[in-house]
Design brief:
This protein is an alpha+beta fold. It is built from four helices and 13 strands. The protein starts with a helix and ends with a strand.
């Protein structure tokens, strides 16, 4: 063997880790040499591992109130009841003029308003409502004020009771009021009121509206109101049955959440005996108005 062959064999032995004999090919070493495969029993938990596992009864599953898992549920229930009572007893207030508008219509132009203010808490409130309309440069056609006690019966609806006084039309009337208002499924604002006057006549009013958001500031609001009389009241120009209806569509833009001008259209229609009384007084039974106004609250 010459020097070159001897050097080659030494390099192969160093590389593959196996002795190389004369006349034999170099064999690669086992890449897993020096490694052992653990037995299945090596992964079994030992007594030390078992001692580290917590023992005893598992904690109760958390329910509606996570604090009940750490504190006495009875104590926490009393705390929540006290908080709810305090929240309902705190006094807040709000004044909203939902409509203050000019009405342009054939023959004569008019104006109208509708709004309410209240003071109280989440459960009990005292509320004042007002609405009315008239002709520009003419007499006030109708105006009413309601003073009501309102109580929440669930998170969505309030019942209300109180008094209503009509300053117009003449003769004036005072009514006892009972009603319900709130937020129906699909976010419809609805209300129903029954009125019994000091003369014994009975009236019903149904209202509904919906705020359809177009953008963060632009809202389209359809709304409707229906009035029903259970008897003829000729001195007020009201016939029995469905006396009148209003349907409107208003598009408002919120410059701020508390201030929103709007434009829209309003259709009014008197029916039955009420329409006959209106014609006899020189008024149309139906009218359509273009409206422009503002809504604000604070």
């Amino acid at each position: 063997m010459n020097a070159i062959a001897a050097a080659t064999l030494l390099l192969a032995a160093a590389t593959y880790g196996a002795p190389v004999q004369d006349g034999q090919a170099a064999q690669p070493a086992n890449p897993h040499a020096g490694h052992s495969i653990p037995a299945a029993s090596d992964n079994a938990p030992t007594s030390e591992d078992a001692d580290a596992i917590p023992q005893g009864v598992a904690p109760p599953v958390p329910k509606d109130h996570a604090a009940d898992a750490l504190f006495d549920p009875e104590v926490m229930a009393r705390a929540r009841a006290a908080m709810a009572k305090e929240s309902g007893g705190m006094a807040f207030s709000k004044l909203m003029l939902d409509r203050l508008e000019f009405r342009g219509r054939k023959g004569s132009h008019g104006y109208a308003w509708e709004g309410e203010g209240w003071i109280g808490g989440d459960i009990n409130r005292f509320a004042v409502k007002s609405e009315g309309e008239g002709e520009l440069g003419g007499a006030l056609e109708s105006a009413e004020v309601q003073a009501l006690y309102s109580r929440a019966i669930n998170p969505w609806f309030n019942v209300e009771a109180g008094l209503r006084h009509d300053f117009r039309p003449n003769p004036q009337r005072t009514y006892a009021v009972v009603g319900i208002e709130g937020l129906a499924p699909y976010w419809f604002e609805v209300g129903a009121q029954a009125f019994v006057s000091d003369k014994g006549d009975v009236h019903l009013r149904l209202e509904g509206s919906y705020d359809q958001r177009i953008t963060e500031r632009l809202t389209l609001q359809p709304g409707a109101e229906l009035n029903i009389a259970l008897q003829d009241v000729p001195e007020l120009g009201i016939g029995s049955g469905i006396s009148d209806a209003e349907i409107g569509l208003r598009l408002r833009y919120e410059i701020a959440r508390e201030f929103a001008p709007y434009v829209g259209i309003e259709w009014e229609r008197r029916f039955g005996g009420t329409a006959r009384h209106a014609r006899a007084a020189g008024h149309e039974a139906a009218s359509t108005s273009f409206v422009i106004g503002v809504r604000f609250w604070f």
